[in-house]
Amino acid sequence: MKIELIGGCSESELEGRIKKVAAAGKLSRFPGNVFEVIDSCDDYESNLKLVKRIIKMGHKSIIEHDYLVFALNDVTPIVEQTIIGYRLTSFTIKSRREVDFRTAGFYVPEFRNKDGEIHENNEELKEKFVKHSKMLFNTYGDIVDGGVNVEDARFILPYCFHSNIIMGLNARELEKMIVAFRFGPLSKIAKLKELGKKLYAICKESVPYLVSTIKDVELNDGSQFEYLESMAERPEIKIADKAKLISYTPNADDVVLESSIMYHYQCSNEQAKKILSDMVKKDKDAKTKLMQNILHKEEGRELEQVSFSFQIPISLSILTHLTRHRMHALLVPEFTPMWDLNNYVTPEKIKASFNDIYQAAVKKNIEVYEEFKAAGVMEQDLIYFYIGAQMVNVITTMNARNTQWVCRLRCCNKAQWQIRFIAKEMAKQVKEVAPLIGEGLGPTCMTDRYCGEGRECCGLIDSLIEADNKK
Fold first, then answer.
1. C-alpha angle 73/79/82, rounded to 5°?
2. Number of neighbours of residue 425 by Cβ within 10 angstroms
3. Within 10 A of 1 (CB to CB), how many other CB atoms are there?
4. Which domain does 286 fall in, by range?
5. Nearest-angstrom CA–CA distance, 196 and 8
6. Over the chain, what HEC string results?
7. pLDDT tens column, 357-368
8. Which among 425, 430, 471, 468 has a CA at the least distance from the CA of 449?
9. Distance in angstroms (rounded) separating the CA atoms of residues 383 and 333
10. Could you state, in chain order, the average pLDDT of each consecutive group of 10 residues for the chain (471 residues)?
11. Domain-embedded: residue 427
């Protein structure tokens, strides 16, 4: 694993970054306008001292003005899945939908026992793991060579393969990440602890005001679920057959419409209800027309007043397609305790032509995992037996505006097939409880007669416009 801070590292760049943060800290308490305050921050050591003093007091919003971009080379998708969960962080990742990963390489853990010490059979286990991982990569290659696209072949890739990422985040989010990886429960995953240490080492040189605050942190790394597990037995893991709407804002359509009226007229909720009722008396389609205006606004803040919660079955290969929509409250199970490896998906294109070798590879993966488990390998080192096909249930809550955004991208015919199935099911179920909001859920060709795919457009919009013109 190699981590580098891209830019902002030279002496002059570092001084400029610290000056910016110091000015933010000084602005609220010192006389003068913003430019005068910035000009007054003309000494690096004084600026650094001021920033350290302010954040030690707990006022850390100022460090959100220090934005850092890192290059991460040869990290595992376990790392990738974890850091993407930091919703105020931005990522660009080498796509497994577009790139052949058979030569990407993979990580081989130093296998530990259940006490966290190096396993007495570590070298033998590593040798067996390398042989097994190569078998899975060879299966991936055979499937690709047989004409199946890499988008579907990736479901057999083990979650030890190497990924490459560009990650951007502000210093406050960086602090949270380093603390979690160095001191929290996630530190038991060796690659995450290594990432935390490397980011901290970079901080010593390039984000010096964070060093003391990170050094002083101590986290409780015990289980957060001890009470729950003392009260209830762990049930068998069963993967849902499709996305399921589990709760939602009652009368969501009316809540959105009334909030729009309240917002525009600065009136009470009771007045808004009466105005909406009077509008319907004048025009039976008033609610539909008003909602269409809201659905097509640049800032549909009214849509943020209602929310929908879903349980979603999804594979590890596709989880990032959901996680990267940062403005929703996503709950992804931790990698340990281990999920049931028998819960996996087989892409239809693989079923049609390569089902035998795919199923044999999955079965072998489970067998080797069971061998390592029986040998007493620490669970945090067994996580690399997850493969892209592994299914998991996640929970999320998103407001109607974010639901609209997700459906615009993921209901598109160009979207990956599993996330498209999920998004269409979400749109369908929302429409059942909030039909007016539901009319705005779908790809932009359906809802706005617009396609942003350019030359890669699937062509559906042309037939839709043609049909519109014939009406």
1. 140
2. 18
3. 14
4. 250-304
5. 20
6. CEEEECCCCCHHHHHHHHHHHHHHHHHCCCCCCHHHHHHHCCCHHHHHHHHHHHHHCCCCHHHHHCEEEEEEEEECHHHHHHHHCCCCCEEEECCCCCCCCCCCCECCCCCEECCCCECCCHHHHHHHHHHHHHHHHHHHHHHHHCCCCHHHHHHHCECCECEEEEEEEEHHHHHHHHHHHHHCHHHHCHHHHHHHHHHHHHHHHHCHHHHHHHHCCCCCCCCCCHHHHHHCCCCCCCCCCCCEEEEECCCHHHHHHHHHHHHHHCCCHHHHHHHHHHHHHHCCCHHHHHHHHHHCCCCCHHHHHCEEEEEEEEEHHHHHHHHCCCCCEEECCCCCCCCCCCCECCCHHHHHHCHHHHHHHHHHHHHHHHHHHHCCECHHHHHHHCECCEEEEEEEEEEHHHHHHHHHHHCCCCCCHHHHHHHHHHHHHHHHHCHHHHCCCCCHHHHCCCCCCHHHCCCHHHHHHHHHHHC
7. 999 999 999 999
8. 468
9. 13
10. 92 95 92 94 96 93 96 95 89 90 94 96 98 97 96 96 95 95 92 96 95 74 78 92 98 98 96 98 98 92 97 96 89 93 97 97 98 97 97 97 95 94 98 97 91 85 85 72
11. no
Counting the structural domains of the chain, the total is: 1
Residue 287 lies in a domain: yes
CA 465 from chain center: how many Å?
Answer: 35
299 within domain boundaries: yes
Return the pLDDT at 218. Answer: 62
Structure-token pair, residue 210: 């964070």
Is pTM beyond 0.85 here?
Answer: yes
Report in angstroms the alpha-carbon separations of 117 from 108, 113, 221, 338: 16, 6, 17, 19
Q: Is 273 a member of any domain?
A: yes
* Those residues with Cβ within 8 angstroms of residue 154's Cβ, 6 or more apart along the chain or in another chain: 96, 97, 101, 140, 317, 388
pLDDT score, position 223: 67
Give pLDDT tens digits for 21-44.
999 999 988 888 999 999 999 999
